[in-house]
Amino acid sequence: MIVNKIALCSDHAGYELKEFLIKELSGKGYEIENFGTFSSQSCDYADFAHPMASSVEKNFCDLGIAVCGSGNGINMTVNKHQKIRGALCWKPEIAYLARLHNDANVCCLPARFVSNEIALEIVDTFLNTLFEGGRHSERIRKI
Questions:
Q1: Peptide bond into 125 cis (omega under 30)
Q2: Are 89 and 106 in contact (CB under 8 A)?
């Protein structure tokens, strides 16, 4: 899978990390669709996670990145969508296995627990790891 267009969203706690990632990913040539939030003012992650997840689910974007304080709430929200496989990633190894074995299509990040540098490493790993298929395909089908 060649990743060209990435959907990003966050709540207020993830806003600064999301903005950092948008700058870095744009600089690497990715097309970005920013679903908000657009400030660090308190807000509800679901208001941004649902539209972002829908864009990935409908193939308007190739993959998604969602950020909130712990990563949990936004991950639970995106996973309410039938064709979304969101993975809460706090280490590059988790992102690698989420793509390789689980064909995750949304990477959820805990902004309060990862540095910008680690988050970028997680996202780079996520975007550059292909699904292995094989025995994992049947497991994914059963979800």
A1: no
A2: no
Q: Determine the 3-state secondary structure of 133 from DSSP.
A: coil
- Of the candidates 12, 50, 81, 101, the residue annotated as catalytic is 101
Q: How far apart are CA 57 and CA 69, in angstroms?
A: 24
Residue 111 gets which letter from DSSP? T
Q: How far is C-alpha 51 from the chain's CA centre?
A: 13
pLDDT in tens, 77-124: 999 999 999 999 999 999 999 999 999 999 999 999 999 999 999 999
- HSE, CB side, 13 Å, CA atoms: give it for residue 106: 35
Active site residue 81: no
C-beta neighbour count of 141 within 10 angstroms: 7
3-state secondary structure of 50: helix
Are 132 and 101 contacting, i.e. CB atoms less than 8 angstroms apart?
Answer: yes
Q: Supply the pTM of this predicted model.
A: 0.96
